[in-house]
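Late entry, written up from scratch paper. The run itself happened at the end of the previous shift, but nothing got recorded in the book at the time, so transcribing now.
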Amino acid sequence: MTTEVNQVTFADLAALMKKGAGVTVDPRELESRADAPFGEFGLDSLGLLGIVGELENRRGRALPTDAERCKSPRAFLDLVNGALTTGA
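Output as recorded:
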């Protein structure tokens, strides 16, 4: 496994939710309910902020400011992966 990952996956997000917010969710459930609000998985805004911080630490650069305001896993991954792809 390399340290530079091009895309954040549902499995990555589930691991970040566990590490950054103490929320355990099956990655398959996260993917199958990708448009469900984060709150349905037990993740609040502070937990999402922790996930954003962890990703920024791993990447060594800031994510878009809207990342911490995303309402669902799909919205979060689309925004983050779009930023990673464009280098924004």
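DSSP finds four helices and no strands in the chain.
(Scratch paper discarded after transcription.)
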